[in-house]
């Protein structure tokens, strides 16, 4: 008999009696697609009534974040009884805020604590927690994630982000061999227990920010990106050990430039980028020629679609100039071929039927690889790095057996082309711990097979304190020029100033390159 025809053991879920949220119900419904699920409720100390009151106000005001909505326990839920034979279940998911010690049980921990009130303490301090699934009996970490919280000002939105990632981690328990998929994640900070004043400070800060936004929104755009260039150091080395000057490229007030890629064509360098147009709220791909003196010509649109485009990953293969732009808004990853450089492109094929962010292509050992982040269960697009491989550029592309190969907002989302130095692979990645593209880190890929992936962070590029910039998230280079993008919040005074350069200081590498 085929082993897959054997009946599957059921799944058990233990919920806290007074702390059931919509994400619990959604996860149970997901498990019921393939398994019989038994639900139990156990007594557990609940959250403070003032927290629930504040969350209720937020739900009325913002009318979103359904995963963070408190709901009744399912009608078929039974009272937890430790004397039951729990070995009858394939897995037991324990959300009851206390360790039951079951041999086949798994508990969710936030910063190492099984009590989700520690999650609340972290969010009220506007910090991201580490989420992990641990064996109830041995404490072994089976899966973990360090998620990016994009809206830290609204409690229910922050909780919804965390709950969606928690649900995604729980689905990994149905893998045949969940242990050892990814190495354990290190904590950035320790657990924070909730204090009475945290909620009051959180509420005051939210109200103050909303009021301030109403006052300044007419004179300030947030999330403005600029591109900066420098003369290449010419050795393929990702970062200098000392500050380096970059010249800022000016952009019009009705758009911004980001995601720079440099392509060498007929002994000239061309700068490809995303231009985000505020008028239509989407990005188009543009290109400008870089003069031998470093001056950048006018940008012209080279590729536009009805949906948002960005990250113009341009490369050459078999005598053809090709591009894989980010087209996640269309739900798929697409390949384009250049018919007349630089402005005429034709669609070639859909490579992967998934909305992949910042897909980065490279070839290693005769195998094509694509790395990019994918959102699951409504979570952030910045956190979960997926890998795909193929023997042919046009496919078929297969997903890595351990996808997501990394779940860490501090170094998952790609930030440019892979850099090769003496046969070693270095991947630029974004640090999104406190916000999208807050900084850039360099990871060395140490293991890459269809079944295993590993990398280590070797260097960090934060935006230099005092520079007026609060983020960077792309680095690319050719043999002549290096390009980065920088995030800043221009107000009227800043727009009138003649900002020419910014110093980027790379931290000393942890190892000798």
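^ structure tokens above, recovered residues below v
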């Amino acid at each position: 008999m085929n082993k897959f025809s054997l009946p599957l053991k059921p799944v058990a879920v233990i919920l806290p009696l007074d702390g059931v949220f919509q994400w619990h119900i959604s996860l149970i419904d997901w498990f019921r697609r393939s398994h019989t699920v038994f639900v139990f409720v156990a007594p557990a100390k609940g959250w403070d009534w003032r927290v629930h009151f504040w969350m209720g106000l937020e739900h009325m005001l913002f009318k979103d974040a359904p995963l963070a909505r408190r709901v009744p326990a399912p009608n078929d839920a039974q009272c937890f009884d430790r004397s039951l034979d729990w070995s009858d279940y394939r897995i037991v998911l324990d959300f009851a805020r206390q360790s039951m010690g079951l041999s086949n049980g798994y508990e969710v921990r936030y910063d190492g604590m099984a009590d989700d009130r520690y999650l609340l303490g972290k969010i009220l301090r506007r910090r991201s927690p580490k989420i992990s699934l641990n064996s109830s009996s041995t404490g072994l970490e089976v899966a973990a994630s360090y998620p990016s919280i994009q809206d830290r000002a609204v409690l229910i939105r922050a909780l919804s982000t965390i709950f969606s990632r928690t649900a995604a981690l729980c689905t990994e328990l149905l893998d045949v061999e969940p242990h050892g998929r990814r190495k354990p994640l290190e904590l950035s900070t320790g657990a924070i227990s909730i204090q009475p004043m945290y909620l009051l400070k959180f509420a005051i800060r939210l109200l103050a920010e909303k009021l301030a936004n109403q006052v300044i929104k007419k004179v300030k755009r947030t999330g403005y990106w600029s591109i900066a260039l420098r003369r290449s150091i010419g050795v393929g080395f990702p970062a200098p050990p000392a500050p380096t000057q970059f010249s800022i490229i000016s952009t019009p007030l009705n758009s911004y430039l980001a995601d720079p890629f440099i392509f060498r064509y007929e002994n000239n360098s061309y700068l490809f980028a995303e231009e985000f147009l505020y008028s239509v709220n989407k990005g188009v791909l543009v290109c400008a020629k870089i003069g031998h003196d470093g001056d950048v010509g006018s940008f012209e649109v080279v590729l536009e679609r009805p949906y948002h485009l960005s990250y113009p990953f341009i490369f050459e293969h078999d005598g053809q100039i090709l591009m894989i732009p980010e087209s996640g808004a269309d739900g798929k990853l697409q390949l384009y071929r250049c018919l007349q450089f630089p402005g005429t492109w034709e669609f070639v094929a859909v490579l992967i039927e998934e909305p992949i962010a910042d897909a980065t292509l490279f070839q290693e050992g005769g195998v094509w690889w694509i790395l990019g982040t994918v959102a699951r269960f409504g979570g952030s697009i910045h956190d979960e790095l997926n890998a795909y491989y193929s023997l042919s550029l046009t496919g078929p592309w297969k997903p890595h057996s351990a996808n997501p190969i990394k779940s860490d907002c501090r170094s998952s989302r790609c930030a440019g082309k892979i850099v090769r130095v003496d046969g070693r692979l270095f991947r630029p990645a974004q640090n999104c711990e406190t916000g999208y593209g807050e900084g850039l880190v360099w990871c060395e890929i140490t293991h890459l097979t269809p079944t295993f992936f590993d990398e280590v962070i070797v260097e960090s590029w934060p935006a230099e304190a005092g520079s007026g910039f609060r983020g960077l998230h792309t680095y690319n280079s050719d043999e002549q020029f290096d390009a980065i993008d920088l995030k800043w919040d221009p107000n009227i005074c800043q727009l009138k100033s003649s900002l020419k350069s910014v110093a980027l200081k790379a931290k000393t590498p942890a190892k000798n390159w």
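The chain has six helices and 29 strands.
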